[in-house]
């Protein structure tokens, strides 16, 4: 089995569903071009039937992207699929993403239906989509809570109908990583025609496990991860693109790779944050403002001796600015000496021993000690030393 992990980006579709993150056509096109440059394999550009504006945006993106497959979402409804196909018509590479809920929660409460009826509708929507493209992805919504035996029947049937990718969404973020991995493994071991399709992970973050579940999925045999920049998405969000890419990169023993240019991750994160007007939490993995900041004295001392004591990723690997030594009341002498040196002051150990208690007095009154505070301390110390 090939160990390339296909990155399916849904920032422009699932990410845009975050309240306040609605994008206009121009913004969608700009981000689509940036995402193609980043190296995403498949870009879910939108849900064409949802509005005329979304149809237009998907249609324009379909004209512009050359390397990335452009994907449009649809329900298991013939009109949805026809509209998605029309929006995608200009694309050099196009995919229709269609499907239906398969858990008993969805079958009974959402559709007031039966398992057999849903199975037939699943097969039918794939057949409709295959009239327009050979690249059809089927999603089994709420697969995370779907009975495995029934899910295997659905997957086998949609592959037989022509689906080339099958999405196994943990729509509610319910699964634990071992449960999601076992579900993927069950499908690989119990669906006779599974070799004819790629299994895809689409995990939500309701319990904070979206990234862990996606990694468990690829270890078990899935070869596509559906994700968003900054983990944007419905409710608590989706799997974070930057997290899965760097996990795969850091853990080379897994044997996986992606085509993502990791050095563009931080600039891409900032672009999405600004365009969608959605700040990134400072402690967000990989792209948060504090991801490469050190303020604890013990951490700072270790980091200054050898960066790998407290950093497993160099900031330049992901396009971030250099690591930061942040001075607070928790900082130690080595960090203080380092920051003075950066400001051009060559103080010896005795100087630092004198300055350190004065530094702590300042630090206890502020959240962070800045360069201008250090300059004042340095100047007063030099005056006393004359």
Q: Categorize the overall geometry.
A: elongated
Q: Structural class from helices and strands?
A: alpha/beta
Number of continuous helical runs: 14
Number of strands: 10
Largest sheet: 8 strands, parallel, barrel
- Strand arrangement in the largest pleated sheet: 1-2-3-4-5-6-7-8
Name the helicity range.
40-55%
Strand content of the residues, in percent?
5-15%
Q: What Rg do the Cα atoms give?
A: 25 Å
On the 0 to 100 scale, the average pLDDT is: 96
Gap between N and C termini, in Å?
A: 72 Å
Task: Report on the architecture of this protein.
- The protein has 386 residues and is an alpha/beta fold.
- Helix content is 44%, strand content 13%.
- It has 14 helices and ten strands.
- It has helices at residues 25-38, 52-64, 78-88, 104-110, 115-130, 148-161, 177-190, 210-220, 241-250, 265-276, 297-305, 333-342, 349-363, 371-385; strands spanning 6-9, 42-46, 69-75, 94-101, 136-141, 165-170, 198-203, 224-227, 293-294, 324-325.
- The strands form two sheets. The chain has an eight-stranded parallel β-barrel with strand order 1-2-3-4-5-6-7-8, surrounded by seven helices. A two-stranded parallel sheet has the order 9-10.
- Helix 2 links the parallel strand 2 (42-46) and strand 3.
- Helix 13 crosses helix 14 (371-385).
- The longest helix has 16 residues, at 115-130.
- The protein is elongated, with a radius of gyration of 25 Å.
- It starts with 5 loop residues before the first strand and ends with a helix.
- The model has no long low-confidence stretch (mean pLDDT 96).
């Amino acid at each position: 089995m090939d160990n390339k992990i296909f990155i399916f980006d849904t920032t422009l579709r699932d990410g845009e569903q975050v309240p306040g993150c609605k994008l206009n056509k121009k913004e969608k096109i700009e981000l689509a071009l940036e995402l193609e440059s980043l190296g995403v394999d498949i870009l879910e550009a939108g849900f064409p039937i949802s509005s005329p504006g979304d149809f237009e945006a998907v249609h324009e993106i379909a004209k512009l992207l050359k390397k990335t497959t452009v994907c449009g979402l649809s329900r298991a409804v013939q009109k949805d699929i026809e509209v998605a196909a029309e929006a995608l018509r200009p694309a050099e590479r196009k995919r229709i993403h269609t499907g239906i809920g398969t858990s008993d929660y969805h079958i009974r409460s959402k559709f007031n239906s039966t398992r057999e009826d849903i199975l037939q509708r699943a097969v039918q929507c794939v057949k409709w989509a295959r009239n327009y493209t050979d690249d059809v992805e089927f999603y089994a919504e709420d697969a995370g809570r779907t009975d495995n035996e029934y899910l295997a029947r659905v997957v086998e049937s949609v592959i037989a109908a022509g689906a080339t990718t099958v999405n196994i969404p943990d729509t509610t973020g319910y699964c634990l990583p071992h449960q999601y991995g076992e579900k993927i493994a069950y499908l690989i071991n119990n669906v006779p025609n599974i070799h004819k399709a790629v299994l895809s992970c689409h995990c939500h973050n309701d319990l904070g496990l979206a990234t862990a579940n996606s990694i468990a999925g690829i270890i078990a045999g899935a070869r596509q991860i559906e994700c968003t920049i900054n983990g944007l998405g419905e409710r608590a969000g989706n799997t974070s693109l930057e997290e899965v890419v760097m996990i795969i990169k850091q853990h080379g023993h897994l044997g996986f790779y992606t085509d993502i240019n990791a050095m563009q991750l931080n600039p891409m994160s900032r672009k999405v944050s600004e365009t969608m007007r959605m700040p990134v939490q400072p402690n967000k993995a990989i792209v948060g403002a504090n991801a490469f900041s050190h303020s604890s004295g013990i951490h700072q001392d270790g980091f200054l001796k050898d960066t790998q004591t407290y950093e497993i990723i160099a900031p330049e690997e992901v396009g971030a600015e250099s690591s930061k030594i942040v001075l607070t009341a928790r900082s130690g002498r080595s960090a203080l000496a380092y920051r003075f040196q950066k400001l051009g002051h060559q103080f010896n150990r005795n100087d630092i021993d004198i300055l350190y208690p004065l530094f702590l007095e300042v630090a206890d009154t502020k959240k962070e000690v800045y360069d201008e505070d250090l300059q004042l301390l340095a100047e007063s110390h030099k005056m006393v030393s004359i």
